[in-house]
Batch of 2 targets.
Target 1
Amino acid sequence: MSNKIRLGILGGGGDSLIGVLHRIASSMYDRYQLVGGVFNPDFEANKAFAEKIGLSTERVYEDFELLISEELKLPKEERMQVISVLTPNFLHFPMAKKLLENGFNVICEKPLTTTYEEARSLHETLKLANTVFAVTYTYTGYPMTRQMRDMIANGVIGKVQKIDAQYYQGWINPIIHDEEKRSTTWRLNPEKSGISCCIGDIGTHAFDMLEYVSGERIDAVLADLNYLYEDNKMDIDGTVLLRTSNGVKGVICASQIATGEENNFTVMVYGDKAGLKWEQENPNYLYLLEDGHPLRVLKPGHDYNSEISLDGTKMPPGHPEGIFDAMGNIYKGVAKAISGEPYDHGEYPTIVDGVRGMSFIEKAVESHKKGNVWIKIDEL
Ligand SMILES: NC(=O)c1ccc[n+]([C@@H]2O[C@H](COP(=O)([O-])OP(=O)(O)OC[C@H]3O[C@@H](n4cnc5c(N)ncnc54)[C@H](O)[C@@H]3O)[C@@H](O)[C@H]2O)c1
């Protein structure tokens, strides 16, 4: 029998954006075997998709509750060990909660839930379950964001004095101006998405990434969000000023109406000795900026890279590492945790990162609604 970790997937069907990323990522280091799931709410489409990807339909279930009850009937050594939750946001909480209550390890897409209260409840459930729980803030898996984190922790840029992230997309521009088209995306529906679209969908990535690479803890936000139309209930653009517990100031600029932009996510951390800049659309380059020195560009796979960066680099220098590799590295970290192997705590984002992300979303919306005032992020 295979010693691979038995993986189930909820959501992520053939009609989804993110499913293929998780399936490829899980297979990347030969640590997981996909054994079943619920890829789609329609059972026929669900089975058809399983057949299309060459998966036996034996453990493809009608819904997640049936998946749990049927899997529990199997002997432990055959049962799914970890389930990835890749559905629209509103299903993360009920699915993840029931999985935890029944002893499964969980890999959950971001944002963790649709409310902070749900996120806290999930955290409490996890404490009792004592299983592995990862939240897939994908960008923390790139070799060069991991390199950035280690260089900052090792003092290469000196004392951090400014944090800055820009996440610009333009995909909502053709949708937002047409009332009918807005209903074509669940991301603009508060019942499925939560109270925020832009800050919830991509602002959370920026928040998590700034904390991940800088080591700072953001403890207050002041937000100015943009809804464009009065009958649109969901923000589609926003600027959020930040203050960290160490008194460092910063900003997150996020937009889904930056017309023509694709996935332009840039993270910058400046210290009193140097600065580091990373761009998602060119993820193999990490820029080191320093007074009196020419710009230096660091790349993956070299002796100068840190251990965690090299651990997530599969090919010799010059072979680009992309988003599939980044997610693969997160899956690898989770595999180590499930198997009881040693791992660096930066190898996968945890439920604490997910809960903090939910606090960020709620406080940013609250700040905007109260007239752009400073609001504290809940500590965890
Ligand atoms: N980490 C990242 O960078 C990243 C990128 C994109 C999306 N996401 C997150 O991934 C999640 C999914 O986003 P998406 O863009 O793939 O959405 P999507 O709408 O493209 O796909 C959702 C999938 O879930 C399935 N689904 C819906 N209801 C279901 C149910 N009851 N049971 C089983 N399957 C069900 C749908 O059939 C579909 O296959 C969201 O939470 C989103 O925020 C994360």
Target 2
Amino acid sequence: MKYIEPHAHMVSRTTDDYEKLALAGCAAICEPAFWAGFDRTSPAGFYDYYRQLTDYEPKRAAKFGIPHFCWLCINPKEAEDAGFAREVMQIIPEFLDKPTVLGIGEIGLNKNTRSELAIFEEHVQLALDRDLPILIHTPHLEDKRKGTRLILDSLASFSKLNRGKVIIDHVEEHTIGAVLDAGYWAGMTLYPESKCTPNRAIDMIECYANEQLWMNSACDWGVSDPLAVVKCGLEMRKRHYSNDFIESIVFENPKRFLSQSDRFRI
Ligand SMILES: [Zn+2]
């Protein structure tokens, strides 16, 4: 099945996973900067992480014939200390001109705190200054609806923001409507234990306009499935969707959003 994995944390995955993705038909992988499974103790830890995302990981993916792109930021989980976060943010511009960097992400909220929100807004401004797309994480453990509301309210204060260049990820049934109604893209994350199952994702596709939706596995250091997107495509086949429609969701939609960066070429 031809598809794009628009959100995967490959630094946590093995080469076996790259092989599985290649065999399944994955045409491109995009990796947002996020928590690496542990808190980094210095900005230098992020410097090396950005090197890994922009240099090492594209080479690893290329061995399996898959183009690898990334998004850069300091994630909300490690942005609670705003002073630390700003030190890390000073490193980011030096990496933004690397050839596989698509935009700013995944920024957002983790515990919906004031400090997280301040750093979120500074990232949005950085993206606006550079005319870059934005990928946004919504909270899982705290109140997702409240976090999404805070994010939408904050974004609304940026009058120059092109909402078609912003994707709000990890939506669920109680947040997807507000995201799409406001003109943003919405991402659905397929996780084995939490977030969204394939059948719930397909139900949401049926209930909402599907032109600004994508699906991802967000596979990372925890219990997650790098093949979740193709498995959902298979589930759509079982529900008698045409191959063209499935491809529009798993390939064409992410391609359209990601192609807003000139660097996304497949
Ligand atoms: Zn993620």
